[in-house]
Write a structure and sequence with these properties.
With about 375 residues, this protein is mainly beta. Helix content is about 5%, strand content about 40%. Strands 1, 28, 29, 30, 31 and 32 form a 6-stranded mixed sheet that branches. Strands 5, 6, 7, 8 and 9 form a 5-stranded antiparallel sheet that branches.
């Protein structure tokens, strides 16, 4: 079943939500560096902190507690379950005052006030999202605007955010974003927005100013079959895209990573020489992230065999080179991927919960955190860190 047909079938009441989540609900969250919310300190001096994860099958959002010394996760407060909502996309205001959950089946956005201890309280009733089949959400670095991709109406909804109440105000009509827009990210500067279009195998780019999205030159660009996960390096020079269904004629793998250089003035994407990049073994990486130093790229596939691909980034041209030992055979899910801003811990989602790793800052080699994977009771949607 294709990406779009599977999602439409589920909205019509058919079974298959786990397959949809595994295929499309991958989260790549880029947070500004330097944000922190201390919730005590671990034995190594690293602060404990919180995170949040959507639980689509439960119709709720769960608070997560992360041990600063070990990276281990425990599940805390969970919002009341609301049937028929299926929250997927998740975005946390940089001030940490409000959290937004995108209800994919209800075509709405739930707004939660965040207490000092991290617990969530609804800030009014969910508001209409403006499109159909919302998937992912992202807030610009200034905390002024919320953007949501609408998979079924092929567009992006843009909202302004009231910093005091958290209220959202739609800015005009949703903006066309080509077929089945899914994952979305801002560059760290907030100047550019990129969206993956899995059904086309392409990436659509926009410049962004005062809440207005404008297509960048030559957009969209072809990336690879199933293009989904997005990640940008810390300098905003390179964009990397996970293509889980792409073929590689010269190696026995399925799926690869496309690399693009980003024009700093226009946002235009140009394929990096040697792109796409792949691993010697492994199948279908769908989630991708770049470590805060901008040195390593990690891509994740479902399973435990050759499931984590790790590359170093050539800072001169953005080319990817596999680190020694990659791909790594550790339990992985490929639903989302993110690294804490301090670069201590790496997390990805699988069908049973969240997989956690430390990684060597010199070699990039990942190691599973004790107790990983950490159960969330049901398949997670997306995750954000409050740090």
């Amino acid at each position: 079943m294709s990406f779009l047909r599977a999602a439409r079938a589920a909205l019509a009441g058919q079974s298959g939500l786990p397959r949809i989540l595994a295929a499309i609900f991958v989260v790549i969250i880029v947070l500004p560096a330097g944000l922190s919310l201390s919730c005590g300190s671990g034995s190594l001096g690293r602060p404990n902190h919180n995170a949040y994860v959507t639980l689509p099958n439960d119709g709720s959002v769960a608070l997560l507690h992360i041990n600063g010394a070990t990276g281990a996760i425990s599940v805390g407060f969970q919002t009341p379950q609301v049937g028929g909502t299926t929250p997927i996309g998740l975005a946390l205001l940089p001030s940490k005052k409000f959290l937004y959950a995108v209800n994919s089946f209800a075509n709405s956005i739930s707004i939660y006030a965040v207490a000092l201890d991290g617990t969530l309280t609804p800030a009014g009733n969910p508001i209409p999202e403006g499109g159909s089949g919302p998937v992912a959400a992202v807030i610009d670095p200034s905390g002024t605007y919320l953007l949501v991709t609408n998979n079924f109406t092929d567009d992006i909804s843009v909202f302004s955010i009231d910093p005091d109440s958290g209220a959202l105000s739609p800015l005009g009509l949703p903006v066309p974003a080509n077929s089945s827009p899914s994952e979305i990210l801002f560059t760290h500067s907030g100047k550019f927005v990129y969206v993956s279009n899995p059904s086309l195998g392409m990436v659509t780019g926009f410049s962004f100013s005062n809440g207005v999205l404008s297509p960048v030159p030559n957009s969209p660009v072809f990336s690879g079959l199933g293009a989904i996960g997005l990640a940008v390096d810390s300098s905003d020079r390179y964009l990397y895209v996970a293509n889980p269904s792409a073929s590689n004629p010269l190696v026995p793998t399925e799926g690869n990573i496309s690399g693009f250089s980003i024009d700093p003035t226009s946002g235009k994407l140009t394929a990096i020489l040697g792109s796409p990049f792949t691993a010697t073994n492994g199948i279908g990486p769908s989630a991708i992230t770049v470590d805060p130093s901008g040195r390593f790229v990690y891509a994740f596939a479902t399973g435990s065999s050759s499931s984590i691909w790790c590359f170093t980034i050539n800072p001169t041209n953005g080319q990817l080179v596999a680190v020694t030992g990659s791909p790594f055979s550790l339990v992985s899910g490929g639903l989302f991927a993110l690294i804490d801003p301090s670069g201590n811990y790496l997390y990805t989602g699988d069908q049973n919960g969240i997989d956690g790793y430390t990684y060597n800052p010199s070699t990039g080699v990942p190691t599973a955190i004790a107790g990983s994977p950490f159960s969330t009771g049901t398949e997670p949607g997306k995750m954000v860190l409050s740090e």
